[in-house]
Write a structure and sequence with these properties.
This protein is an alpha/beta fold. The chain has 13 helices and 14 strands. The chain has an eight-stranded mixed β-sheet, with helices on both faces. The protein is globular, with a radius of gyration of 21 Å.
Length: 393
């Protein structure tokens, strides 16, 4: 009766069962996996947000396949003054921007544009597991290429080249990666462009965490890539800390001829669904203008948590933090006493602490735990005290 593409394993895994049992017990839980900024104790400008959604123009349906022009102009303004990997600084044409209800929808549009059934997209490992479900729904295959850690993270181009086949259609990069927090370096971006251009493949760049860097300088963006066809994705969820507003975008860049073909086809796909609502599109300029004050709060949270974490780990015999360059997450290297899944269950049961096991992000080896730096300070501090005590004893 049901399509094989949705034949996923739906049974509850051991971590979810342990978590459910712990919550039923009524015990306190220190959740170090927070990913929803709207529930992390940040101060939102509520009146401004609600006022932006009350624009009376939202009462009139204005279907536009790419999205409302004023909304796309606001996205183009977001990129003003940013640098591409070639050092270029230029304004992005709003006609090269398409809006979607979220990056997941944008991915689906791009996969449908590029791939026949059974085609392949190369994706980084470790990385976020969402891509697996999107690939299943698009009837395509994901081929992992490795990110290696050696005084920082880097793309393993040997594994990337080994994964190429006649069915390869694109290389996906997450910039910065989730959860490694590593940015694609200029030399890596150049090599990716060379590989993709030689095989007529595209680059798909997920930049939802682009604004969250550990330094003062802005990160370079793939949205100004001109060497080859590139799709750059981002949205309000992380940029303005408004995941509930469900608005994202794709910037199409590269050689003019192929870009125009891609936009024309994507426009038909987008016109088929017309997903983004009019009120949220009208509110987009305001929501993007709020990003700096919201990001400042979160960056302070990240900095405070990271400072505490580092001070605590200096006194630990077993826990090591891996280097990061941005994003919201941090990776802990821990002794391999069991699989990461089993260790996560043990930490729930014995310490009342929830972390992500490395396997959740497709780490190839055990000994990695992932925690969120946007966790409220008091919760992260107590959770880390418990983790250090568990491992050091």
């Amino acid at each position: 009766m049901f399509a094989t593409r949705t034949n996923w394993r739906l049974e509850t895994n051991r971590v979810a069962r342990a978590l459910e049992e712990h919550r039923r017990s009524g015990k306190e839980l220190f959740d170090l996996t927070a990913s929803n900024p709207t529930t992390c104790g940040l101060a939102y400008p509520e009146e401004e947000i609600l006022a932006a959604l009350a624009d009376p123009r939202g009462l009139v349906y204005r279907p536009e396949s790419k999205g409302l022009r004023e909304a796309r102009e606001a996205v183009a303004e977001y990129y003003r003054g940013r640098q591409g990997f070639s050092g270029s600084i230029q304004q992005i044409d709003p006609e090269r921007i398409l809006l979607a209800s979220g990056t997941s929808e944008a991915y689906s549009h791009i996969f449908r544009l590029l791939c026949e059934k059974g085609d392949e997209i190369l994706v980084p490992a470790p990385s976020y597991p969402l891509f697996e479900f999107l690939a299943d729904l698009a009837d395509i295959r994901l081929v992992p290429y490795l990110l290696l850690y050696d005084h920082g993270w880097q793309i393993d181009f040997a594994s990337l080249r080994a994964g190429l086949t006649p069915h390869s259609r694109a290389v996906l990069v997450v910039h910065p990666n989730n959860p490694t927090g590593s940015f694609v370096k200029p030399r890596e971006a150049a090599e990716l462009a060379e590989i993709c251009a030689a095989r007529e493949m595209a680059i798909v760049a997920d930049e939802v965490f682009l604004d969250y860097t550990s330094g003062a300088a802005s990160a370079k963006t793939f949205a100004l890539q001109d060497a080859m066809l590139t799709f750059t994705l981002s949205g309000l969820s992380k940029i303005s800390l408004l995941p509930q507003m469900k608005l994202a975008w794709t910037v199409v860049s590269g050689p003019e001829a192929v870009v125009q073909i891609a936009i024309n086809r994507l426009e038909i796909i987008a016109d088929t669904y017309l997903s983004p609502g009019t009120p949220i599109q009208l509110a987009l300029p305001k929501f993007l203008s709020l990003r700096r004050s919201m990001q400042a709060q979160l960056q302070q949270r990240i900095s405070t948590n990271l400072s505490f974490l580092d001070s605590m780990l200096r006194e630990s015999n077993c826990l090591v933090r891996l280097d990061r360059e941005g994003g919201w997450y941090v990776i802990l290297r821990v002794p391999v006493t069991a699989t990461d899944d089993i260790l996560t269950v043990v930490l729930i049961e014995r310490c009342s602490v929830l972390v992500h096991p490395g396997h959740f992000f497709n780490f190839s080896h055990d000994g990695y735990l992932v925690i969120s730096l946007i966790t409220p300070e008091h919760e992260l501090q107590e959770g880390m005290r418990r983790l250090r005590k568990f491992f050091d004893e």
